[in-house]
Each structure stands twice: as structure tokens, then as C-alpha cells.
Design goal:
The complex is a heterodimer of chains A (522) and B (163).
Chain A: E1 2-5, H1 10-14, H2 17-30, E2 35-38, E3 52-56, E4 59-63, H3 71-84, E5 93-96, H4 101-104, H5 122-127, H6 132-137, H7 142-152, H8 164-173, E6 180-185, H9 194-201, H10 203-217, E7 221-226, H11 231-246, E8 262-267, H12 277-284, E9 308-312, H13 313-325, H14 327-331, E10 334-335, E11 338-339, E12 341-348, E13 354-359, H15 364-371, E14 381-386, E15 393-394, H16 405-410, E16 419-424, H17 429-443, H18 449-467, H19 471-488, H20 492-496, H21 498-507, H22 509-512
Parallel strand pairs in A: 1-2, 6-7, 6-9, 7-8, 12-16
Antiparallel strand pairs in A: 1-3, 3-4, 4-5, 10-11, 12-13, 14-15, 14-16
Helix pairs in contact in A: 7-8, 7-10, 9-10, 9-11, 10-13, 17-18, 17-21, 18-19
Chain B: H1 9-19, H2 26-37, H3 45-52, H4 56-65, E1 77-82, H5 85-88, H6 92-103, E2 109-110, E3 116-121, E4 133-135, E5 138-140, H7 145-162
Parallel strand pairs in B: 1-3
Antiparallel strand pairs in B: 1-4, 2-3, 4-5
The chains are: A alpha/beta (522), B alpha+beta (163).
Chain lengths: 522, 163
């Protein structure tokens, strides 16, 4: 019997994967073929999606992007080839999936199973090394698990890059009758979809990571705070939690160990600021998502005032591989103080958009040219925004910067959650700068003045600069305002909005000064 | 498209009680109410406040903080257009203008015939295939003006078939 893999994640469905699956089922019924159809997650080669894979003795071979009208010809050719075991006779033939250079040249640790397994099959998960990390964790004392994570060099993949082990150590050492593990799945940065992919394509890895975190710090309850926009992820996660409960990985006894761990998904409601960890905690408590002042840090007084680990999806989903293969194995990837791998997301105006997990240290230029293949529109790249709406816009001169937390900090930029958005030469950088301020004005929680008022004044000042009104004075005002926001804001929302604004203003000044000076008119 | 019911205090009470044993249950309750009725009727805020033993102002404060919660019924189809940077890089600003012109409404408005509600959204996590929009819970990739028109056409045609 031939096994066919048809992906099922938000993006592949938006490209017609569900309809393809129906069509293939119909085709098989018509021709009385025996097919085993597996809905895997996406491999993240999105320009090739929907990418269908066929199991062969040599490995899986891929076809893509497959449209409805290709099905008849494709399936006939696949069936004809199946008997001869030759599959090359089709224009959409991509060869062995693992040999596609985009995939072959990655180092997938966090994403090792993504796109390979049926996301909801615990058997697939186990066959591909799932729960090996948990198995090891169950033989260790809590402090030993924390040491493993600290030694691996893992830093928060949500954007702040705080050492995960230190956070866990604080929670472990803080005594309390109740502790929590909270997964930040409020992936709101534009250009990012790695969390979504993990949750939709390998949810058990996140569940495993959260169970291990619970064992490490002595927490019995976990929450996944998921953004409202991710409805498929919600569905998959809730099903996966149910399966994990049935198999006794979650519940009163984690795998018969005597340790309790329960998990629940909670939905956000469209507020970007809830990706900030303290606003997230307020939201989980049923309040407005207002940023809290620190200290105390959530590791000491977090959810309902109890010691809480708040980690991003990617950080937690990376924990199992560290426990399974050892901290040294993970640490051997990367450079400097950025150890391990980082799942980067190529997005926006780029030919080969998708998920690229590589060791830290690759240059931005190689990422967008070798992997990305330049712009989708075919025009020259003008700017690349790395790290979401609070990340800097980088001009050509900065594209040789290695992707490494410290190297990016040194040039006034951030890696953030690994989103890389490419813009061609038609972009108006002054418009982008103004949008950054506008976004901050819309999404600010309103607690601190520099962010709440500063962003609105920022939109106005940028409008004036773009109109050519008292250009010199307003430029100085913009710089002063950005300084106030950066130094005076309570959290990264107001504190980092100046990054995209000033990087655009400093590196693409000509876009701001297009109209004639109108000094004296106003 | 989802058919919504008219609200009544007994249903609100029934929905809320299902969640009351959860920690910090207010957001789950509000989600359930909106799923059932399409919006959160302002008249039920007092009742929710009583159930949680908080003031109506606090419930209102939560409701008004989150863009997803709405106090008025939406149109038959809610269309969200992504305004974030990845979509901007592929022409979402043009799409925004086109959508507003085509539907004759601005963001946060519902067309006079009650067919469409237009909302902005800041990222659908579909940034590899920008520009993206969401209709109800369904996400669409590579949406330019022509694709938008075709989708609107489809949505209206389907309604006629139902009638």
C-alpha cells in the first residue's frame, strides 16, 4: 500500500491542502487504489506548499506546489511509477525530500519532527525520539535538570534571550505551595510563525518540554497562553493534550512517576501586548493585559502571585532534545554566547519563504540570498526587518552581521523571535517608521506615559517630517522622543519602538525628505 | 458563517458556570459568550460581574481592552485584513484601500446590508504567503485585489444558495 503525506497546517490549508486531500481520497476511491493518507505538519518550505510526499523504499519523495488540477496527472504518474519504483516522471517532482537543499542545509533540532510525523499520533512521536527527554528527566533530581538546561546555553527564544536555566533555577529555589509553567504562545510579531508550526505540526514536543519544566521546578500546573488568531493550533493542542492524558503523560501521575502535571490552553483576545510576559500573566488571571513593574520577576511572584516559569514555545520545545541528547550536544552548535540553533522565519517579499533552523552564526545575507533566493517580486532588496515590529530595519551595509544575539545588539538591532521580513526597493521607509509608531499607539497597554503618549506624538512628528514641516526641528524632536521612549518605558513595547523608527530614519534618510521644505508655513 | 442566537440571562449563567472552577475564568467565559452570541451584549456585563463578584466597571475594563471582544453583533462575515509588516511588504496597503472601497466601509464597521464586517488584524502567522486575510476562522494566502473580489463574490453567492 502506498503512503501519501499531505500537510495540514494553517498556511498549507490556506493554499488548498484540505481540498487536495479530499481530491486524492476521491481519486483513490474512483480507481480503487489502496492508499494510506497521513496528514503531516508542514516542512516549512512554504513556496513549495502544498507539498505532497510519497513513501518509497529510498525515502520520501516530494511533489510541489500541487494544485487541484495536478491531481489526476500526478496520481496516475505516481501509481504508474510505484510499480516500477521510479518517480521522476512529473514536472512537480522535487526528488527525495531530505535532499532538497533548503532542508538538507539546515540543522533541525527543535524542528526535528516537524513535517515528518502525524502531529496527533503519539506512536509517530515515540518512533521519532519523542519522550526520550522526559525519560531522562524522570531519572534526575530537579536541580540536575536545571543544570542541564543552564549548561546547554539555551536562552529565551521569545525575543528577550534571557538564559532559561537561570529562570528555572529561581523558580526552583523559591518556596511555594503552588508553582506554574506558563508557555507564551502569543506569537504576535509580524514575520513569525515558528511557534505556530511547532504547535500545529509537533504539539507533543511542547507538551514534553512543559512536563520537564514542571519536574525541574516543582510545578504541577501549566498554561499555554495562545493567541486568538491561531485557531488550528488551539484545536491541535487541545487534542494533543487529550491524547497525552489518555496515555498518562499528563495528569495525576506523569508516566507513573508520582509527579503531577496538568495542562490547559487559554486563548488571548487580539492584544499584542499580551506577548509581554507580565501582561500575559495579568491576562491569564482574567484582567486587562497590563504590564507589571519588575521586580518582583515572575519567577518569584508570577501567575496569581506564585513562582512561575514563563517561556516561549520554542524554548520549551527545545528542552526535550537537550535532555535527550545532553547539554553538550546542544551547546556544540552556535557561537559565542548564542548556543544551539535558532529557528528563523523567512517572510514577506522573499522568493523562498519558510522555516530555516540553523546554528547561530549564519549571516543575514546568506540567509536571504542562499535560502531566501532574493525577493519574490524580483526587485532588489532594500531593507530587512529582523525581530518583528520592534526590530530594526537593516540596510545592505549590515547584512553581513552574523545572526547572534550579541552581534545584533552591537548594531542596535535585535534577533527577537527570529522573524526576517524582506522588503524590495519599492518600500517607503518613512511610511514604515510611521507605521511602527502607529502600531505602538494602537497596541500600548497605556500604563506608562512614554509609550502611551510618546507613540501618538511620534506619529504626528513623523507626519510633519514627511510633509516637510520644520524639518530640522522635527527631526531633532523625533530623536529626543525616541530617547525618552527607549529609556523611560516600562517594557519593550515603548522601549523598542524606536528601533525600527530610528533605523529607518538613520539609514534611509532620503525617504523622509522627499517633499519640499515648508518651513515657516506652520 | 456562523448563526448566532439571541442572548438571555439563563444562557449567560449556564455558560459562566461551566467555567467558574477554572482559575482566572473571566476570559474563557467572555470567549464562550462571544462564540455563542457573536458579541458580548453590554446588558449582560452586570450579570457577569455578579457571577465573578467584581464590579461591572472591571468587566467593562477587560472587555474594552481586548480588540477581539465586541459589544455589537458582527456582520454575517467578518473579514480581517492583516496590516503587519510582512503583508505590507507584499502590498497589503493597496489591499486595505481596495477592501474599504469595495465594501464601502472602514475598519471596525459593518456594511449597511449586514453582510460584511471589516477588521484589521496584526499578523495571522501566515507571513510566508502574504498578503493574508481571514474570513471567519479561515485564512487565505496571496490575496491581491482580484483574489479579494473573487472571495467576496463567492461569499455572496453562497448566501444566495442558502436562501
Amino acid at each position: 500500500m502506498t503512503t501519501i503525506y499531505i500537510p495540514r497546517d494553517t498556511t498549507t490549508i490556506s493554499l488548498g491542502a484540505d481540498k487536495l486531500a479530499d481530491e486524492i481520497v476521491n481519486f483513490a476511491a474512483d480507481k480503487q487504489l489502496e492508499l494510506s493518507i497521513i496528514r503531516n505538519g508542514s516542512r516549512g518550505l512554504y513556496w513549495l506548499e502544498p507539498m505532497i510526499e510519497i513513501e518509497t523504499s529510498a525515502g520520501r519523495i516530494a511533489y510541489g506546489p500541487v494544485m487541484i488540477e495536478d491531481i489526476n496527472y500526478l496520481m496516475t504518474s505516481v501509481m504508474a511509477s510505484a510499480s516500477a519504483n521510479v518517480y521522476t516522471d512529473h514536472p512537480l517532482y522535487l526528488g527525495l525530500t531530505e535532499d532538497i537543499p533548503y532542508l538538507r542545509d539546515q540543522q533541525r533540532l527543535t524542528f526535528a519532527r516537524v513535517g515528518i510525523i502525524d502531529p496527533l499520533s503519539i506512536e509517530h512521536f515515540l518512533q521519532h525520539g519523542g519522550f526520550q527527554g522526559l525519560k531522562h528527566a524522570l531519572t534526575k533530581r530537579p536541580a540536575e535538570i536545571v543544570v542541564d538546561i543552564t549548561d546547554s546555553g539555551l536562552r529565551g527564544r521569545g525575543g528577550a534571550a534571557f538564559p532559561t536555566g537561570i529562570k528555572w533555577q529561581t523558580v526552583l529555589l523559591t518556596e511555594s505551595d503552588q508553582k506554574y509553567i506558563v508557555c507564551n504562545a502569543d506569537e504576535g510579531d509580524s514575520g513569525t510563525f515558528a511557534d505556530r508550526m511547532i504547535m500545529e505540526s509537533d504539539p507533543f514536543s511542547l507538551i514534553e518540554g512543559m512536563i520537564i519544566a514542571g519536574l525541574a521546578v516543582g510545578a504541577t500546573r501549566g498554561y499555554i497562553y495562545l493567541r486568538e488568531e491561531y485557531r488550528l493550533a488551539q484545536q491541535v493542542l487541545e487534542q494533543a493534550i487529550h491524547v497525552a492524558e489518555e496515555h498518562h503523560y499528563l495528569g495525576e501521575q506523569v508516566h507513573g512517576s508520582g509527579h503531577e502535571f496538568r495542562l490547559e490552553v487559554r486563548m488571548g483576545a487580539g492584544a499584542y501586548i499580551c506577548g509581554e510576559e507580565t501582561a500575559l500573566l495579568d491576562s491569564l488571571e482574567g484582567k486587562r493585559g497590563m504590564v507589571r513593574t519588575k521586580p518582583p520577576v515572575p519567577a518569584v511572584a508570577g501567575l496569581f502571585g506564585k513562582p512561575t516559569v514563563v517561556n516561549n514555545v520554542l524554548s520549551l520545545a527545545t528542552v526535550p532534545v537537550i535532555l535527550a541528547r545532553g547539554s553538550q550536544f546542544y551547546k556544540d552548535y552556535g557561537l559565542g554566547r548564542s548556543r544551539g540553533t535558532i529557528p528563523l522565519q523567512l517572510a514577506g517579499n522573499v522568493r523562498h519563504a519558510g522555516l530555516v533552523e540553523v546554528a547561530f552564526g549564519i549571516s543575514l545575507r546568506r540567509l536571504v540570498t542562499y535560502f531566501g533566493g532574493g525577493t519574490r517580486t524580483g526587485k532588489p532588496i532594500k531593507a530587512i526587518q529582523v525581530g518583528g515590529p520592534l526590530g530594526a530595519y537593516l540596510p545592505t551595509a549590515q547584512w553581513d552581521t552574523p545572526l547572534d544575539y550579541e552581534a545584533f545588539t552591537d548594531i542596535g538591532a535585535i534577533l527577537g523571535h527570529g522573524g526576517v521580513v524582506v522588503f524590495d526597493d519599492t518600500v517607503d521607509m518613512a511610511e514604515q517608521a510611521q507605521f511602527a509608531m502607529e502600531f505602538c499607539a494602537i497596541e500600548s497597554c497605556g500604563k506608562c506615559t512614554p509609550c502611551r503618549i510618546g507613540s501618538t506624538r511620534g506619529v504626528e512628528v513623523l507626519e510633519k517630517i514627511r510633509q516637510g514641516t520644520q524639518r530640522e526641528k522635527n527631526s531633532q524632536l523625533l530623536i529626543d522622543l525616541c530617547e525618552t521612549m527607549e529609556l523611560g518605558s516600562l517594557c519593550a513595547m515603548g522601549g523598542m519602538t524606536p528601533f525600527p523608527v530610528l533605523s529607518a530614519f538613520n539609514n534611509f534618510r532620503e525617504d523622509f525628505f522627499q517633499s519640499l521644505e515648508r518651513d515657516g508655513e506652520i | 458563517m456562523v448563526q448566532h442566537l439571541n442572548w438571555d440571562p439563563a444562557t449567560i449563567s449556564r455558560i459562566a458556570r461551566k467555567h467558574l472552577d477554572q482559575e482566572g475564568a473571566l476570559l474563557p467565559v467572555l470567549h464562550s459568550i462571544q462564540t455563542e452570541f457573536g458579541h458580548i451584549p453590554p446588558d449582560c456585563v452586570g450579570q457577569i460581574a455578579d457571577l465573578f463578584n467584581v464590579s461591572a466597571a472591571e468587566v467593562h475594563g477587560v472587555l474594552s481592552f481586548y480588540p477581539f471582544f465586541r459589544s455589537t453583533p458582527p456582520g454575517r462575515h467578518t473579514i480581517q485584513i492583516c496590516r503587519a509588516e510582512a503583508c505590507q511588504s507584499m502590498g497589503s496597503r493597496l489591499l486595505e484601500r481596495h477592501a474599504k472601497l469595495t465594501l464601502g466601509i472602514d475598519f471596525h464597521q459593518t456594511s449597511a446590508d449586514g453582510e460584511f464586517t471589516l477588521e484589521p488584524v496584526y499578523c495571522l502567522g501566515n507571513c510566508a504567503c502574504s498578503p493574508s486575510i481571514r474570513v471567519g476562522t479561515q485564512i487565505f494566502s496571496h490575496v491581491d485585489s482580484a483574489r479579494f473580489d473573487a472571495l467576496i463574490d463567492d461569499l455572496q453567492t453562497n448566501i444566495l444558495e442558502v436562501k
